[in-house]
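hey team, just a heads up i'm posting the complex here instead of the shared drive bc the drive is being weird again. everything in one block, sequence lines first with there labels, then the predicted structure for the whole assembly after. its three chains so it's a bit long, scroll down
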Amino acid sequence: MNNLQAERIRPTQKSFALSKTAKDRIFVAVMLSPALVILVLVIGAPIVKGIWMSFFEYTLAMRTNPQWNNFENYTKLIKTGEIFTYFLNTLLFVAFVVAIQAVIAMTVALLLNSKMRGRSIYRSLFLIPWTIPSVVVALLWMWLLQPQYGVLNYLLSRVGLVEQGTQWTQHPSLAMVSIIIAAVWRQFPMMMVMFLAGLQSVPLELAEAAAIDGANRRQIFRHVTIPCMRAVLDTTIIIAIINNFQMFTIIYNMTAGGPVDKTTTLSIAAYVKAFSQFDFGSGSAIGVMWLVVLGGGIYLYNRFSAKSHDIY
Amino acid sequence: MTRRLGLLLCPILLLLTLLAACGDATSTPATSTTAAAAATTPGTQAQATTAAAANPGKQVELTFASWGAGEDATKVAFDQMIKGFEAKYPNIKVKSVSYPFNNMKDQLIVNAAGGNAPDVAQVHKLWVAPLVNAKLLQPLDTLLDPEVLSDFNQSLLNSNKFDNKLMAAPWTPSPVLIYYNKTLLKQAGIAEPPKTWDELIEQARKVAKLGNDANGNRIYGLGISSKKANNGGYYFLPFLWNNGGEFLNDKGQITLNTPENVKAFQQAQSLFDEKVTPSGVEIKDLRTLFAQGLVGFHFDPEVAIAIFKSQSPKKDKFMDDIGVMLVPGATAGAKGQSFFVEHNLAVFNTTKNPNEAKLLVQYLTSPEAITIFNKNGGFRLPARKSTEKIDFYSQPENAILKTFIESLQTARPLPASNEQFLSAMEELSVSIQKVGIDHQDPAKVVKDLDATIKALYKQ
Amino acid sequence: MNSKSEIFRGKLAKYLLLAVLLLLALFPVYWMFVSSFRQNSDLTRLPPKFLPFDVGASLENYGRILANPRYLTYYQNSLIVAFGTVAVCLVVAVMAGYVLSRYNFPGKILLQTGILSVQMFPLVAILISLFTFYSDMKLTNTYQGLILADTSIALPFSIWFMKSFFDTIPNSLDEAATIDGCGRLRTLFQIIVPLSRPGLLAVGIYTFLLSWDDFIFSLTLMSKDELRTLPVGIANSFAGELLFDWSGMMTISVVASVPVLLLFIFLQRYMIAGLTQGSVKG
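-- predicted structure starts here --
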């Protein structure tokens, strides 16, 4: 309120010493500062400290006097080969989750984009999985996939697809499948809504013109629809990739990285190193390697977002 | 219209917050500081007198961390024991803080690093060494009264000594025995429960041959935990021991790579392959399956009885269907080997009230508190000799109880004195997964496990 | 084969596919509700009962869960943190979004892309050192600490979204207000903000959902039981010693999903706007 009053008198003092640009600059700085302070404090500073920590033997007990350990955090991760397992698991998870959900989301979006009664109701119904909190998604899928008395094994064994008692979250290869299913189920609705919005921005005349020229539906989709919604597709998929790289909640609660590290992604590994083995140094080292690899991604992302800026 | 409704929703959510806040005001969560007069059974006189001596009139608050106070099956018992303690020592208030069992050890360590250590905590056997290693615990041999110290089961007491200092007090030792389902055994044509380990395995196979029940529920012979969970690997130790193998020798050296242990793993692999045991389960899953009458033989301590009763469709009547037996040995005469799942009590060295902490430890292990435990949360076996004398144990009311009391003499403490034992047991469950789910060669798995654990133990 | 039956078949196939996909999307939610009405001894045995009000269904689990004061505390903590995050995030995002929309200054593009790229940084890696910072600053086990952490995650998108929203409000309004003698802050809060209600709502909902869903920050930064939020409380109910209480877990899952479901039912227009605006117009 005081600020507002102070503002009110300012325009009357035209003889104020500061130029308008200078005042603008001050205003901009003041308005931006809370955001910047928060981002620097909670994200910027920890990243810098994380890089520093990764070069030290830094455990919970040694928090007050960390010891330089000659890159041991890194060499250990590389020598045992575990870091490659984590990268591979992460890539597998991200690739499958994003690809599968993109296909499902596009299918649903195309279905809903055609003329039909009650379209908005269908859209709302499809969005419901997205409203379920991630922790609940993890527990719910644990329950659906319970081997002995879970409902999915029951139904699938009835049709003869699996054997009653089949392991999911504890099976060396099905564990990855389980977390992918849960993640896709939670995430595809959001992608579907974005695709739908993108489809609706495709000018109808273009498709009609193509149809008159004798193009069939598949050709229209490939050569008219997709190029028209390119920007939406790219942004949506990049956001999905970023989010799934970060995925922790669903994996941690469903498999905690097991069995035998088969679902240990970078985020699970970093968390376990830091908060269950209390080896903050090694945890940070995983984070730094992750950051370096992502650096390439960020570069591409920035170039992309600059490009999309030019278009719109 | 929707827009207006939306604006309405915000106040509703706010109202919810307020409601939640009101609910909170009337009953503070996870703390039970109300000192209600609980029936005090005649306890040890010595404790009462020391209480009077310790700071008369001054109010002291102790923090007691446990997982038991947070679980439905034991919540009431914990609340009642704390009430009993507060009634006995009116100048001490106990703030009970509950932790989730699976994460409790980690969270205790993090909290202690942040200056939030409790005074007294319920600790699992496997956590004692890591907590000692993190220098968080207070030695108890100088703290507890000598007459209480000599009252404990000495083998349990000795297994909690580190550098000859007692770091945790045995509370509820919980020996692991074998429950069996009489109905399933009868259906499988088994007249009498097994006398030897190999007979046990054979009978388990017979039970598993029953296949599926009418509704498609699979029937299993016995259950092997293979999840890498807190309760994981050590349930497999009896398989090693009763096949003649060992985990450690007398000198504390890892002796896993032996033909006996390989045989145990081969046995396990055949049980997985023949679907005699479900795969990828932990003890909690197995408990539920056994309560549903779908498992022939089940390794579990006495804590499971309350769970069977609450989870079985037959409720209390389920107890008529089941029996309990000691773990059978390699030959008919030989003593079978089993272990104690120990739940212990530890005092943190940051406590400002060691005397009151001592009183709490002594009270919780006393006949009085164990009686309350037994009355409210299913029964627990005692860790103190004076407790064994109460009628509940000296004149057991049924065969199950009787067998459990007998087993106090036969079970052995887990060899958990190395701080890496917990990790070793996780590695053991990983090996079971490799053999059971991933179909790897038992001989190779055992050899690798031996090497891995030796590396952990720096041997 | 005439074209009429072909169209009919095409339509039939379309609706069939739609029905199957809808079933896959909704069955798990349905199963969560059904399971919450049943007892464990019933749930852990085949065959499963598929109807919600089959024999043995009751609201007993709800009584059991709601009578447990811990869950009320978790719920309350989640609401405090979520609303706190929304409040802080809205104010900060409006301030930053406004100047990014209205003013030009050196390094603006760099700043904008910088803010957006923040979303890509590995959260867990940040968390490890953030935890040590928080421990030193005594911010662990405080609502403020968790609100700050949640805000920082929601902020990049919120700023971006508010900026795009302000871009759609003509600059002439600001100019008219300035001529009328309004100061900059007053122009923003008395002229522009009231016009931005849909945008604020979208950002508010986005932030609320993010905070309501947060698991990892709450798990590591709050170690006292009385300060835990609902997601961690729910996960902990799975981490007990004695048994898997499936019916209890499904019940608390329903209870945790309901606020978001309600938000969704009443405000889905804004939620969808918030979701799509960014990427479509971005």
